[in-house]
Please model this.
Amino acid sequence: MATPVTPPRVRFAPSPTGYLHVGGARTALFNWLYARQTGGTFLLRIEDTDKARSTDESERAIFEGLEWLGLNWDEKVVHQALGLPRHQRDANFLLETGAAYRCFCTAAELDALRQEAAARKDSFKYDRRCDLLPRAEIAHRVQSGMPFVVRFRVPEGETEWDDAVHGRIAFPNKDIEDFVILRSDRTPIYNLAVVSDDIDMRITLVMRGDDHISNTPKQILLYRALGTEPPHFAHVPMIHGMDGKKLSKRHGATAVADYQKEGILPSAMVNFLALMGWSPGGDRELMTLEEMIALFSLEGLQKKAAIFDTRKLEWMNGQHLSRISAMELEPRLTPALLEEGIATAEMLESRREWYLELIDLLKVRARTVLDMVRQAAPFFAGEITYDSDAVEKQWKDRAATAELLHAVQESLAAAAAWTPESLEQALRDLATTRGVAAGKIFQPLRVALTGLTVSPGIFEVLIAMGPELTNQRLRDAYEFLKASAV
Model:
């Protein structure tokens, strides 16, 4: 494989016609990692030539998604639409040098040619009839204002390149028809605009999804016709869902913003996306951004399609949650608690030390920030909902459980101090007195305090709740059990 130019210039070039897809984010990440690893330049180009579908809202979503992931770009954002005069100049240059020609065929005429080819059971390929017109006739048609598109004249031979992922790829030029590069309204077709922009931006490596492989021979031909040596190419594998099909909305969330709202950390999202088509070597999975930069290489890119497993993403997010400090997590958890009405900003600020300790307590068992929100709710004043499965499993005998919780409340009130050691001694003494295993007390108590069967350790829960809220939770559970006892 040829070594890309150093320092490289790479780009991410999304269309602002929708949200930032995880596939696009992964492409941006690979380019960004390569630029940072090699001391190169990462550029952002907004391909907004489709005015009917491009929106400012989509453009903002792209910026916000990249910023959330921590993928900063190095130069001013390029808007493809502003390059129109240059695109037209390049098309004119290709006309003047004989690399392209005007095609006056109407849509109806082309459709008729396609139908004729279908009747012969042949694949349609433009027959260059307009390229065979006499110069005088072409000049007359142009002079009279007859509409035309500009087609690129594909030369004979073969177009090949050494792909950083797939190795040598070659296309026979006879299989490529004379493709349109400029529409009749003088706007460029994708392939011309991309090549013109990449030349202008001095791009040295084009790293993108392998669904673009079929465009590459056309673009290589255009580079050379415009007198420029093509950049290097790296076509990364597509991302598939668990069913092996191309990732789409039917597989669930595909927008980066959706995962942000679902409580995924940017560090976990970046870590997860990096492993979608790239291997750092060994069995390494959990990495910081700095580690990914140090390890990233084109040689680590894989050919096979990557599988987007949301369960794996949530597991990875849980690992990242447990590794970062409460101070780092606080700005992500607080807005969610406020939005759910669980706490107020004043309350969290007045009990800041306790709040940070609570975050450290909850993050260990959480998979997402939203998990932490659900687990945090019982530690704040307000009613809680008892999980039906938890009630069915741990509170089968409502009357007996109500009596047990009343005894627990008395034991806790009689504890020497509100410390883990004293509370544990009080509850274990109660278990001994009643002749039951301690778990027969801990589990019903856990449901009373949190509404759930899974929580941090019961004594950690008691300490975090404090005596006042603990008593309120026990009173509420007692009333619920008495009211529902058969």
